[in-house]
Amino acid sequence: MGGGVGVGGGEVNGEEVSGNGGDREAMRERIREWRVERCWEVLHALGPAAYCSFRLLFSLHSFLSLSLFSHLPRNPNTIPKFPPNKTLTFAQKPFTSLPPGEQRLVLLMRALVGRPPVVLLDEVWSGMDDGMVRAARAYLRGESPGGGVDGKNGRQGIRGVDDTQAVIVITHWEEEVPWEGEEVRRFKLG
């Protein structure tokens, strides 16, 4: 976050705003605020607070699946949440200091944050561990914590992509596609 700009900061260029005088400045400010809010949303949904929770959830599930502990509750809501400062600490790290899996997550965050009309995910899970993949898939499908109910498919959570976006997933493995059923159009080459 060098240079004092911060997460989601930076100038809003003239092409992004319409109107005159004060209207343009108000529009610029709304765009800046949306960018910052969206950056923090994506950081929270895909950063360590999310993928560490998935790691803990599945480690705990494996631990509880041992017959000795099968009488204990398996409610994922009982798993402790990571504090918000974990996301802040992650946001302040230079990209080059991150391990490969976290670098891949940051690249995914960057692809999603501006809500472009087309998102291209080429071997997106490469280098990520299971917790990272599960957090990213949940976010893309609208199953990550927070947000409202997705009216189209009734999912609860923050959506990484919305109905105005198309996502192209390039992969060698069909099971890597985050969506199923009618949400997907498959094209096989060769």
UniProtKB/TrEMBL annotation:
Question: Which InterPro entries does this entry report, sorted A to Z?
Answer: P-loop_NTPase (IPR027417)
Sequence intervals crossing the membrane: none
Residue stretches in coiled coil: none
Query: Which superkingdom heads the taxonomic lineage of this protein's source?
Result: Eukaryota
For this UniProt record, the keywords arranged alphabetically read as follows:
Transport
Composition bias of kind Gly residues appears in 1-12
Which Gene3D superfamilies does its entry note?
Answer: P-loop containing nucleotide triphosphate hydrolases
Positions of region (Disordered): 1-24
Q: Which family does it belong to?
A: Belongs to the ABC transporter superfamily.
Q: Which PANTHER family match?
A: OSMOPROTECTANT IMPORT ATP-BINDING PROTEIN OSMV (PTHR43117)
What is the protein name stated in its UniProt record? Answer: P-loop containing nucleoside triphosphate hydrolase protein
